[in-house]
Write a structure and sequence with these properties.
With about 90 residues, the protein is mainly α.
């Protein structure tokens, strides 16, 4: 598991400035999400489509007036989007 952790750490994009919320919440959650599909070789478009579908579902929830559900779905979409980027960098895509 340590080699997977070091691979995931090396897949992070270099940034000029760090965003605290991203570093403290979204990226660690994305690391957990990446650890599952990486050995299973889940297709990258499937992860990207999941993020997109989650964002669309959040928009529908927002339009329906379900603010808390919409907010949670947007957070999930952000985690999936981060995981998609990390998976792409790890796979060289």
């Amino acid at each position: 598991m340590s080699s997977l952790s070091s691979s995931i750490d090396s897949s992070r994009k270099a940034r000029i400035a760090q965003e605290r919320l991203c570093e403290l919440v979204f990226r660690p959650l994305a690391d957990v999400v990446v650890a599952a599909p990486l050995p299973l070789r889940v297709p990258l478009p499937l992860v990207a489509a999941s993020a997109g579908a989650t964002g669309c579902t959040a928009a529908v929830e927002l339009a329906s007036g379900h603010l808390v559900g919409s907010a949670l779905l947007v957070q999930l979409k952000t985690v999936l989007d981060n995981a998609d980027g990390q998976l792409a960098r790890l796979s060289g895509a």
